[in-house]
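Recap slide: SOUL family heme-binding protein, sequence and predicted structure.
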Amino acid sequence: MATEEPNYTLLSKTENFELRRYENQLVAQTWVSGDQDAAGRAGFKVLADYIFGNNTAPSGESSKISMTAPVAMKFEAKQFRNKNDDNEPQKIAMTAPVSIKQEQQQNNGKWRVQFTMLSQYTMQTLPKPNNPDIKIIKVPAQTYGVIKFSGLAGSERVAAKTAELQSWMQKQKLTVIGTPELARYNPPWTLPFMRRNEIMIAYQPK
């Protein structure tokens, strides 16, 4: 069976870049420490434990939840983090998107790792995590600038692709309202040339 991915409306496309509109979606998220690779592995392990059955369904029993793509990571400076972030995502101005979100290490930084939940679920029907480090968040509809790339998504490659996307969005005079997200669509055993990665940055529609 094909892995479900979030639906979006393609607003614009060039050879290397896309503008997309995503509707509301539910995500399971956790915060982890370490560099990009270590955080990605740790966050995936925590969230995989949840979808593989460490949860409580409305029936009172555990339930397996099918995997979706991508797994996302995102970078964020801690001083901009909303104290109520576990309940309501915060829009953050950019100073210069598997989702992974990182807070800078010098500020006790952590990465935020997210799994998107299947579209069939609602907040009421989705099994609740037994692990208190996992939160279920309703992400509001957003528009993103996106750049795709294959191969390994190491920190240097991610930084280079992020810079490309930021430069292109600035040229398009888009008002950025989020920090870059790294989205990975393939399991770790996928050959590098077959991998699909994306950097996503939220912006304010005109």
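The chain has a mean pLDDT of 83.
The radius of gyration is 16 Å.
(End of recap.)
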